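Q: Can I borrow your eye for a moment on a structure tokenisation matter? Would you mind producing a protein record, from residues through to fold? Write it directly below this note and I will take it from there.
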Amino acid sequence: HMGYDYVEMPLAEMMRLDGPNFLELKRRVDRLTIGCEVCNNFFPKHMRLTGQEVRMDLVLSYAERALTRAKDLGATCVVFGSGSAKNVPKGTSLEKGYQQIVDLLNQIASLAANRDIIICIEPLRKQECNLINTFEEGGRLADELRHPNIKVLADYFHMMAEAEPMSHLSGPGGRYLAHVHFSSSERKFPGYQDEEAYHEFFNELNRIGYDGRISCEAYSGDFKAEAPVTLEFLKHMDARAKGGDSSV
């Protein structure tokens, strides 16, 4: 596991496995020295969450099964980005699409609470979704829902893509921050070249006292070589922001 504390695994992909194959995956995860504490990719691309064709009964049935699998793997956090599923189609207003997501999260919240899982709203850049593109918007949505199991994720890559000020992390939405995704602004493993905004990002996390998980979500040409370098880099960035304490 190269020194990492946990692994984050894709839920929609794992939902495609039949029962025996999922059990085999669970056995493999159980044998690891690190656990699957987080799942991302909640809903599959083809499942409509906004627009005229939403089948809420199917969506909620899927969500219940998916959250059960996440819990079976040991996850306590599920990331809700799901850009393709959430993207508001032509013929539906963004306001209506937004309300559909509010209604959906209100219903999923209790399913998550029953399993001790936090749902983290993931803001995505506009190229991937036309709804909830900034951390600030994610924070407003969480504030509207006011449910202890609905929080927000901060993703450095998406914040950079949207040119969102890092100061938003210590704004009103900061109290809902429960998970972090990190990569370079080109979605590569960080640690090979410094970016000025890296420091701003970690300083803001430190300012609000964030002490939760940070997942490296990035593309890699050589995972075995890049993952350890990135881990050291993340520890260094965290220690620097905290003024010398190197715990991650």
The chain is about 45% helix and 15% strand.
